[in-house]
Design brief:
- This protein is mainly alpha-helical.
- The chain has one domain (about 10-80).
- Helix 2 (about 20-40) runs antiparallel to helix 3 (about 45-65) and helix 3 (about 45-65) crosses helix 4.
- The two termini are about 25 Å apart.
- The protein has helices at about 10-15, 20-40, 45-65, 65-75, 75-80.
- It has 5 helices and no strands.
Length: about 90
């Protein structure tokens, strides 16, 4: 079963590189599981989401440097507004 956060846009973006796609799909499964465990433990979903974003950006800076991480972040508004991260279909 595909976790709900793996919408079609996300899955489509993974098709380009099969090795990366498998790794990212598996990694997203771990994040989804951690999110569920945190909620069960009483952590507010908004708090966990903010912490997860912070941790992800921190890791991207460590791995790729501030400039590439900033470029990634710069493209997020367009991706969000296009519905890439939405759980429901847009009309």
């Amino acid at each position: 079963m595909v976790p709900p956060v793996m919408n079609n846009a996300f899955l489509s973006s993974l098709i380009e590189d099969p090795d990366t796609a498998d790794n990212r799909r598996e990694a997203l499964g771990f994040v989804t599981d951690a999110f569920a465990e945190a909620i069960i433990a009483g952590v507010e979903s908004e708090d966990f989401a903010h912490a997860a974003l912070f941790a992800a950006m921190q890791e991207l800076v460590v791995l790729h440097g501030e400039e590439l991480a900033a470029l990634f972040a710069k493209n997020l508004p367009e991706r969000i507004l296009s519905g890439e991260f939405s759980l429901t279909h847009r009309h």
